[in-house]
Amino acid sequence: MTPPPFTTIVLGGTGQVGSSAVDELLAIPESKEVVMVTRKAIPPRERVRNVVLDTNAADFAERIKTLAAELNAQGHVSAVSCVGIGIGTALWSEDDLKKVEVGVVSAFARGCHDGGISQFALLSAVGSTATSPFKYVRVMGMKEDAVRAVGFTRLAIFRPGIITGNAHTPGWSALLGAFLPGGFGNIDQQILGRAIAKEIALRQRATGEVIYENADMRKLAAE
Prior knowledge:
This protein is α/β, with parallel strands linked by helices. The chain is built from seven helices and nine strands. The chain has helices at 16-26, 60-72, 94-114, 135-148, 171-177, 189-202, 214-221; strands spanning 6-11, 31-38, 48-52, 77-81, 119-123, 154-158, 162-164, 186-188, 208-212.
């Protein structure tokens, strides 16, 4: 299926998963532009616009709203958050983790929504729930709830298990993932990135919330 032309605004696009998602978006001919919101300038790249913003600024959501409205006036725009702390998660306090994963991501989501964007893809993690006894899983659940409350017409939540092909995934972890069942097992980083890109490209007119786990991502990436 050939999707209509679209633009994507991406937060967290310089990370491991985010970079894969950006690569896969750019591989789709109908992807007119990827607008990457970053804290520092990145090297120029064809069909990529870099917008440098302080994600901790009090007006971050308002600046995203202005950007989203500008893009939305030029055609269909979707948004992606691939923000993730990665290997440093265990060293962060829960409050610091929440400032990034919940605070920054929800501000980005609010700005996108208020600027007229209706489709949002969110990177989370398998088993995420705000009631979990485990810090990381609990914060991911809080992040999901915060973005869910924004009220997007289409919200796609990606809950990968152990991400392979990722510099932050220890070799022993990937080996363990080969023996874990279903959503807790391995998912290749490029497959995850491709699934995010396919959701954005092929589900532009979809509504409601959808949760993708490993098997769902592999199926979507193959479409």
